Amino acid sequence: ADIISTVEFNHSGELLATGDKGGRVVIFQQEQENKIQSHSRGEYNVYSTFQSHEPEFDYLKSLEIEEKINKIRWLPQKNAAQFLLSTNGNSSLPKDRG
């Protein structure tokens, strides 16, 4: 369940989200001193962790939907808040338009 299945940086590169086969999303934040020094290798620390998906069963299609995160997409930032979408199973996210 701890095997990473997808990785996505936000638009600024300050946040990194990973999704795993167990349906968990872990968000990492770039260390403050690395933001100032753009030439240094970026080091990230865990910022937040949450369970995004649980295994479920689609009774209409008689299909088991696994919890594995297939894709993460950060939404464009409109204010100080950061939002992301994640998909599991056979679902997909719309293509990035910008």
UniProtKB/TrEMBL annotation:
Record's keyword annotation contains Thylakoid: no
Domain of life: Eukaryota
Keywords on record: Repeat, WD repeat
An annotated GO cellular component: protein phosphatase type 2A complex
Molecular function (Gene Ontology), one example: protein phosphatase regulator activity
Protein name, as recorded: Protein phosphatase 2 regulatory subunit Balpha
Source organism: Propithecus coquereli
